[in-house]
Amino acid sequence: MQQPLHRRPPTASNPRVQRTRSRVLTVARELLPQVGPTGLTYALLAERADVTRQTLYRHWPSRAALLVDLILEGPDFGNYPEPGSDVRTVATEWLKSLRAGISEPAIRTAVLAVTAQADHDPDSAQALARIGQDRLAALNILLAPSGTQIDGPEFTLLYGPVLARLFLDRSHVSDEFIDTAVTQWLTTLDGLRGPGRAGSG
């Protein structure tokens, strides 16, 4: 089993460590859209967050590790879906949550940076895999009451159209677009699993 790319987890019982980590992520989230991935150096981040570079490396041994935490621990937009028994509803609300997250400038920049570096940077490749695994596991938790669980390729078929619309078409993802994507996804699942087995409700 692949070991997750991560910093050494700070001690949860140490509030000072948690405050420092939270402050660094907040500053990094503010800086990233301004200076870009290459401009977000540990020297700059340490200066702005008022920590040492050693502290940064202790939490995030590589910049890819920092970027993945910016993505997975982004701000709460208050629209993350609840687990539910209707697959269509859960998938629709999950895609809307994805749209909101990617619309946040720091998250958008971090996703593009990790993706662009994955071909030549092993840390970024591992980070990208971790993001996908994390989000798939989270979605399957939301789908659990429906009795439906999806695998990696089925997950890609769900989010792929939304990311293509955002990053390749450079266009807005409307609610209507999401509804169409979910309908097509459910039809594909029915084709792969047999009618009715996808739990389309």
Cα-atom radius of gyration: 18 Å
Q: Largest sheet, described in full?
A: none
From the spread of the alpha carbons, the general shape counts as elongated
Poorly predicted regions: 1-11
Q: H/E series, N to C? A: HHHHHHHHH
Average pLDDT metric: 87
N-to-C CA distance:
34 Å
Q: If helices are DSSP runs of H or I spanning 4 or more residues, what is the number of helices?
A: 9
How helical, in percent, are the residues? 55-70%
Count of distinct strands: 0
Class by SSE composition: mainly alpha
Strand percentage: under 5%
Task: Please tell me about this protein's structure.
The chain is 69% helix and 0% strand. The protein is mostly helical.
Strand-helix topology:
Layout: H1 15-39, H2 42-49, H3 53-59, H4 63-72, H5 87-103, H6 105-117, H7 122-143, H8 152-168, H9 175-193
Helix pairs in contact: 1-2, 1-6, 2-3, 4-6, 4-7, 5-9, 6-7, 8-9
Task: Provide a quick synopsis of the model.
The chain has nine helices and no strands.
List keywords for this structure.
201 residues; mainly alpha; 9 helices; 0% strand; elongated; disordered N terminus
